[in-house]
Amino acid sequence: MSRLKRLSVLASVVRGDARVLWHALRQPGSPTWLKLGVLGIVAYVVSPVDFIPDVLPVLGVVDDLVLIPMAIGFLVRRLPAGLRAEARKRAGLPAEPGETVDMR
């Protein structure tokens, strides 16, 4: 698989996870740890303090390109199954295999 194709797949996954996270946050029953986790991600993105300073060419940006998608994916995987299924549905994404949406 070419690098451009891999980057395209990674970008679509991150966009999908970010949309799921956004819709999960907007649910009335979203857990407090989710809100704190998203707040932590936002704080890291806007903070001038990084693990690797951005002034270093390439390496400074790579830590953001790796850590932020990993953190978003981590939070999405930890969502309760019902909340994740509802958030995926609202984000317009297909259900994961074996996932059902509670239609109450």
List keywords for this structure.
mainly alpha; 4 helices; 104 residues; flat; 0% strand
Task: Describe this protein's structure.
The longest helix has 23 residues, at 3-25. Helix 2 (32-46) packs antiparallel against helix 3 (59-78). This protein has four helices and no strands. The chain has helices at residues 3-25, 32-46, 59-78, 81-90.
Total beta-strand segments? 0
Structural class: mainly alpha
The share of residues in helices is: 55-70%
Radius of gyration equals: 15 Å
Average pLDDT score: 80
What is the percentage of strand-forming residues?
under 5%
With helices defined by DSSP (H or I, 4 residues minimum), what is the helix count?
4
Could you name the ranges where pLDDT drops below 50 across 5 or more consecutive residues? none
Q: How would you sum up the major sheet?
A: none
Shape: flat
In sequence order, what are the helices and strands, one letter per element?
A: HHHH
The first-to-last residue Cα distance is: 42 Å
